[in-house]
Design brief:
The protein is mainly alpha-helical. The protein contains 3 helices and no strands. Helices cover 68% and strands 0% of the residues. α1 crosses α2. The longest helix is centred in the N-terminal third of the chain and has 26 residues. The radius of gyration is 27 Å and the shape is rod-shaped. The termini are far apart.
Length: 97
């Protein structure tokens, strides 16, 4: 995928950061115990991160990304085609009254 707009690059970086944070949080929870007073906050935070990550994966590997790519392809293909010829002008009638 070729991206050249700063907004597209920012979205890709943000999506990668979201996946990285979720993965890092899960790995940290595997190796470190959570204090009982913070257990509820960690559960909420993990749920929020999981929701963000599933949205990112759903977009980039689901039908939304394919649909967006298809829209770009259609837009590019219609820009490169010549305009259709103009319809012929009406022929004046030869009848005189």
């Amino acid at each position: 995928m070729k991206t050249n707009k700063p907004a597209e690059i920012f979205v890709l970086i943000l999506a990668g950061f979201c996946i990285f944070c979720f993965t890092a949080t899960v790995l940290l929870l595997c190796f470190h115990a959570v204090p009982p007073e913070n257990k509820d906050m960690v559960n909420i935070f993990l749920g929020v991160e999981g929701t963000f990550s599933s949205g990112v994966v759903g977009y980039y590997f689901g039908s939304s990304k394919s649909s967006a790519d298809k829209d770009v392809t259609i837009a590019n293909s219609t820009l490169n085609q010549p305009a259709p010829p103009a319809p012929p002008a009406p022929v004046p009638s030869q009848e005189t009254k």
